[in-house]
Design brief:
- The protein is mainly beta and 93 residues long.
- It is built from 1 helix and 5 strands, in the order ββαβββ.
Length: 93
């Protein structure tokens, strides 16, 4: 198994709440993982500028990270093996 780069970042949601998320960016995911966890027509989502679809490690699903309301200097990068994609534990961070 290869290593996966994952991130911890916070952003302000549309309702004003602060959301902290542990996530993997799509480009950092194995292609087999993306294919196995994607449903639909195969068309990409049309997101506003600054929004990115990411794999949320805590909810074990796709979510949107808002880079426009995030402090990019506070986004932290980590490395782990691929097991974290379905078995993430925040106590190890």
């Amino acid at each position: 198994m290869g290593n996966i780069k994952y991130y911890r970042g916070s952003f302000t949601k549309a309702n004003g709440e602060l959301r902290t998320m542990f996530f993997v960016r799509t480009n950092d995911l194995p292609s087999t993982f993306v294919e196995g966890n994607t449903k639909g027509t195969g068309k990409g989502r049309n997101l506003k500028e600054g929004m990115e679809t990411v794999w949320d490690l805590e909810s074990i699903s796709w979510r949107t990270f808002n880079w426009r309301t995030a402090n990019s200097e506070e986004v932290v990068t980590f490395q782990a093996d691929e097991n974290i994609l379905n078995n993430f534990d925040t106590s190890n961070v």
